[in-house]
Amino acid sequence: MPTYNAPVKDQMFVLNDVLKIGTADIPGYEDLDRDTVQAILDEAGKVARDVLAPLNVVGDTEGCVLENGVVRTPKGFKDAFDQVREGGWTALDCDPEFGGQGLPYVVATAVGEQFSAANMAFNMYQGLTHGAYSAIHTHGTEDQKATFLPRMVTCEWTGTMNLTEPHCGTDLGLMRTKAEPQDDGSHKITGQKIFISAGDHDMSDNVVHLVLAKIPGGPDGIKGVSLFIVPKFLVNEDGSLGDRNAVSVGKIEEKMGIHGNSTCVMNYDGATGYLLGEAHKGMRAMFTMMNEARLGVGLQGYAQAEVAYQNALAYAKDRLQGRDVTGAKNPDGPADPLIVHPDIRRSLMDQKSFVEGARAFVYWGAAMIDRAHRNSDKDADGLISLMTPVIKGFLTDRGFDMCTQAQQVYGGHGYIEEWGMSQFARDARIAMIYEGANGVQALDLVGRKLAQDGGKHVMAFFDMVKSYLAEAKGKDEAFDKAFLDPLKAASKDLQGAGMYFMQNGMKTPNAALAGSYDFMHLFGHVCLGLMWAKMAEAANEVLASGAGDAEFLKAKIDTGRYYMARQLPMTATHLKRIESGAEPVMALEAEAF
Amino acid sequence: MPTYNAPVKDQMFVLNDVLKIGTADIPGYEDLDRDTVQAILDEAGKVARDVLAPLNVVGDTEGCVLENGVVRTPKGFKDAFDQVREGGWTALDCDPEFGGQGLPYVVATAVGEQFSAANMAFNMYQGLTHGAYSAIHTHGTEDQKATFLPRMVTCEWTGTMNLTEPHCGTDLGLMRTKAEPQDDGSHKITGQKIFISAGDHDMSDNVVHLVLAKIPGGPDGIKGVSLFIVPKFLVNEDGSLGDRNAVSVGKIEEKMGIHGNSTCVMNYDGATGYLLGEAHKGMRAMFTMMNEARLGVGLQGYAQAEVAYQNALAYAKDRLQGRDVTGAKNPDGPADPLIVHPDIRRSLMDQKSFVEGARAFVYWGAAMIDRAHRNSDKDADGLISLMTPVIKGFLTDRGFDMCTQAQQVYGGHGYIEEWGMSQFARDARIAMIYEGANGVQALDLVGRKLAQDGGKHVMAFFDMVKSYLAEAKGKDEAFDKAFLDPLKAASKDLQGAGMYFMQNGMKTPNAALAGSYDFMHLFGHVCLGLMWAKMAEAANEVLASGAGDAEFLKAKIDTGRYYMARQLPMTATHLKRIESGAEPVMALEAEAF
């Protein structure tokens, strides 16, 4: 059975030596000294390893079961959820006013990586609650906040997000669920929602559904959509639970993976709902939590790759098969371990260099969210808004690929469920789809984010890379050659793609849209290239100071060199595809397919 | 539920207009007039669509069950197998001396594509039997042939291949199964084999296991391995079934996919086996059927992509979501179909251009096998031997990617098992692993095949491309620009990679091996580029003759242009990775991971 060990040393390296969070000028960061963060991650790591990881296979094999209208989670989930709750792990970055610990989002993100790697399906119950918490925290009335937030911070009550209906996912303007105003100010919600993660279960006292619906008579399409709080059990004045609301589980979906999470069809039959935020402004309310939610999904992508990599590495060191062509490495054994073979090494380096680069990228993004929220920094908000589709789309695509590569290291055993490698790939697969399928992320990036605020944020990104290159250059020739030169070339490819869109996209929108997916990946590679340059620079600095673990730091630099040499060249191909334009993509009429 | 319709028109185009099989100078090909082949494919297509495809989901959900030592296949499999058998579909290219129809392998391959696309797990029962048939046909004594082949041609008796043991897959020299000689000339086989596809089931009267084992006292390692025929039921002199042999099913593996095929742990407890071919030359006997078997797996890769594509296309035409940015295409409906969106179109074109290119590549390879066997053409044999790892490795990797893309077109529904798209990806995944994991294919290609016969075959490949480019050039400027220029550039990248290996691989074997995987993909792209140029050329010819379906032929050219513009640029990145050499790959010591 696979295992998971939290890579605390790697996490600390990013937080402290690369992002230097303790010294960042963001409220709350001043308390993030090395020891405190280390203690949090060490403790969380134990929960991940000892409580959550052992339940990962259990969740996959047992799945969730709907019995007499009630969802039963896999054996052990409820106890584990209690432990997570009691350890305060659900409250890390929540508002102290409602019982939270008020820690920065970046720290909660690092813990989230551990929990998600250990057991993705399990961690979603908490993750969705956090999303709903954020929406109520931002848009709720004082009453709503007082009623719901304290129990959601502790996950005594969990949350869900209800967007999709059978006939509409991305295009929510087609929505049919309706919300009829009642005399007491509440609404009666009627309709069916599908793909509702954590839609119902037996681990909390109440489930707080956030439901998009249309108030009759409102504007057509997406502009007439409002957001409602629809609790499973109505809440009395004194905060105690009242009647069962008219919401029920239609069925649990049979999915490719994340079997431990109950993905429900939810039926609303005149259920009582409370408007959250303004009427007809439901999408805006939903979108305020999108950056955070999508970053969380990007995190899932590399977190699954991390745990898959850990197990592939262990197998590659353990399994004896064939001989090193340059001379036996295990001459007394019947064969050498797999890791001696260059192609296995290539695969492991692909995985390792992706995961570590992705981690830095996501923590950087989380710090940007903290900066946007805690410093009300509009530039940071614009930048993270631009990068969100890259984080979500690129990291989940590549994360899934890396899970597939990790599975491949096992040969035939990778295909047998007993070994657990298939589950990592099957679980990771959903991250490419939910929270906006990756094609929609690419559309969001190219069709919306690039031009946002007059293109200000993408220019800020280019400036950031440019200043970094200028400032880092000239200190170390080997570093310049291995890191800065490839980063500069990749960044040039990205600018070339942006230029192509500017010159052609206005006239022919399809010229930009046909290249959107490649652009998202091109952007992602540049970001990981930038992260690797920063990590290598940080490793060099710590090495020069004589502190730290030299072998660990050298490994960081070697891993980064691999990414720059072997992964970053992809940017040239992405640019070439983009520059081939819309014509080859759209040449066939739909009828000619 | 997904459906499958055999793409007979596309298949016929490759066979007749591109490969022009009816006029090829290979014995048996002279009878392959258009009408005969069309009739075969039409009939087979009906079986695939009406008998096999409807059982695909059934096979996945029910799986195979081991009860009291006997394997039960999913409901409907036995009837379907009877229909396939009675239709003569198992005997297509088998030797008429043993009841076969003596058709060329290339025709059986086209039918195999249909059956495999319709139901991969089901078609493996027949596929493995064919592999075992070929081994006995090539290496068996007259008695062995007379005893086993007639029943295997009809699949009254099915076959298996037993190579892997728990501690060894690729490195078969570590094998422990032993074969003790008996006085009557037979051997007693003792040991455990794992991952035995179609290892046991209820659809045939007997199962003929081909088992690799070591005769005590023979050479160490791989040179001491022999191949044995071990029937489930011993066969009496008169051909009737005798006693149950001492072979049993230990368990059925729980796998990621191909649940309809019984993947068994087989226990041999002093089972009676008959030496097939020479003692200690078991690997040679196994390898004679490797080209064919690996081509068959490459076929599975693109066949799953074909059926996944068919369903993604139907969904993209049907599902209404969002609007075409260039103006509504379905103004009277609530939204436009998915297919109007450029990124969906990109995905569909990726899939379509891959599948059609792969089909031509595999049929070309099958014709090469026919040429090697029927004309005893050593050059053809060398060429197909070189290309086999490319066909197997490249087509299964890309085929799986395309299944993933097809699944992505469905958005959330792609993740729900009910829609069937997950199964295509899960089933296709095994093709990257079995018959030699794709990393081993890359090793075979670079470590063995490139240098085989003094590098003669790779030079022959380069010559083939070069002559083609010279001969095709100058007839049509648009064709030259869209097809020949990119093919030339890609082929130059391939030669550059070959050159890099020559200059560095002798001194530093790892310099070649670290680039082996990229080389396999680079080679694959060049092959598909070559196939697309040939297909476009053929389409142009038919168009010029005024015959054929103009819309169909123009779509071929457009699809080819897409491949050349959007996929072929990958060769540059592969070359760049290869030229970065072994250093970045091997820089980290195994202990530093």
From TrEMBL, chains A, B:
InterPro entries: Acyl-CoA_dh-like_C_dom, Acyl-CoA_Oxase/DH_mid-dom, Acyl-CoA_Oxase/DH_mid-dom_sf, AcylCo_DH-like_C, AcylCo_DH/oxidase_C, AcylCoA_DH/ox_N, AcylCoA_DH/ox_N_sf, AcylCoA_DH/oxidase_NM_dom_sf. It catalyses: 3-(methylsulfanyl)propanoyl-CoA + oxidized [electron-transfer flavoprotein] + H(+) = 3-(methylsulfanyl)acryloyl-CoA + reduced [electron-transfer flavoprotein]. Pfam families: Acyl-CoA_dh_1 (PF00441), Acyl-CoA_dh_C (PF12806), Acyl-CoA_dh_M (PF02770), Acyl-CoA_dh_N (PF02771). Transmembrane segments: none annotated. Signal peptide: none annotated. Residues 161-269 form the Acyl-CoA oxidase/dehydrogenase middle domain. Residues 74-155 form the Acyl-CoA dehydrogenase/oxidase N-terminal domain. Keywords: FAD, Flavoprotein, Oxidoreductase. The keyword Lyase does not apply. Residues 461-588 form the Acetyl-CoA dehydrogenase-like C-terminal domain. Residues 281-444 form the Acyl-CoA dehydrogenase/oxidase C-terminal domain. Its EC number is 1.3.99.41. GO terms for molecular function: flavin adenine dinucleotide binding; oxidoreductase activity, acting on the CH-CH group of donors. It comes from the Bacteria. Its cofactor is FAD. The keyword Magnesium does not apply. It is an enzyme of class 1 (oxidoreductase). Belongs to the acyl-CoA dehydrogenase family. Involved in the assimilation of dimethylsulphoniopropionate (DMSP), an important compound in the fixation of carbon in marine phytoplankton, by mediating the conversion of 3-(methylthio)propanoyl-CoA (MMPA-CoA) to 3-(methylthio)acryloyl-CoA (MTA-CoA). This is 3-methylmercaptopropionyl-CoA dehydrogenase.
